[in-house]
Amino acid sequence: MWPFSKRAITQGDGKVFLRDDSSWATASIGDGVTVEKAIGLPAVWAAVNFIAGTIAGLPLHIYERTGEGRKRVDSPLATMLNERANPGATSFDWRKYSFERVLTSGRAFTLIDRNAAGRVSGLYPLDPDMVEVVRERGRVYYRHWQNGVKVTYQAAEILDIPFMLKPDGIGHWGPVSANRNAIGLAIASEQYVGRFFQGGGVPPFIVTGNFQSGAALGRAADDLTNAVHKAAREGRPALTLPNGLEISSVGTDMEKAQLVEVQRFQVEQVARIYSLPPTFLQDLTHGTFSNTEQQDLHFAKHTLKRWVEQFEQQLNLKLFRPGGRQFAEFSMDGLLRGDVKTRMEAHAHAIQNGVYSPAYAAKLENAPYHAEGDRLMIQGATVPIATVGDAE
């Protein structure tokens, strides 16, 4: 019965699912890749914050279908979606937290809390590490553990945003775990550079010479290692060696290993994972002033649109009556705005062809309203060539 039946509290259990050690494989380079390690990479940090912050900042309104189109609705639910998700969190906080979870561990859950009358009273994000999704007798349920108590929710009580579902429609793949090898390579290169400079920028080396015994060799190796690192810390350009000893580096230096190129490539890999143009991760290698606007449109159309539509459909499925007149929708007008010259040309073209009224174009630019501009117009100077002489 509408809206939804009440949930039931069952037995206590403290099981954790999404953070199970078995859920995280080890990268082939040897580092166990986790969300905590992944967000330590500047490229992943930038990608997650950029996408999540952009979605959190978009206007989110409720509209009602009318005979002439639609009109915006002001209601407690509209305020909840656009301004305050619950008494302790803003809508921005709720949406940003949710998409930070989606873009790292791969899924976000929000509890739809309702009062005795069945109206939505709050939207509360759940820790995805404490949620298990199950299917029983053809229905999907969400089991949430909090303080050792398990609460089971019906599908209609949970907003569920997965990054990518598995074939069973229940499990999911997260971007970090699914791309652990690519992210692991980036982590390894960061760690290598860190160890290199932590040691004063001194590469591994070998010592050759005549030693009386193994013990003498060990003492010489320790003494030389300490001397080399001390010289590096003190900025001394020269190091004296006993007669008969030589030092030579081992392995490949950074330039030959193209470490800078590897790190730049990993930024591009992270951009691919999140469907972002690299310029949004501050990689301007291929960015120019002429293509920046097109990349803005690419981001809005090919990256953001799929998340916005997925979120909107969850809201409309679980917050409104089926077949009802009200629906939720994000406004992406601000993201799709071009530069001033392009916008003015587009407005002029729309006004001259009767698509926009001057007042509507002014509204899009947040300009003052004038009643005399609230009429559709069409340019009347276009006439057949044969009539030009007659008109004169």
UniProtKB/TrEMBL annotation:
Top-rank taxon: Bacteria
Descriptive protein name: Phage portal protein, HK97 family
Pfam families per record: Phage_portal
Alphabetized InterPro entries for the sequence: Phage/GTA_portal (IPR006944), Portal_HK97 (IPR006427)
Protein source organism: Aliiruegeria lutimaris
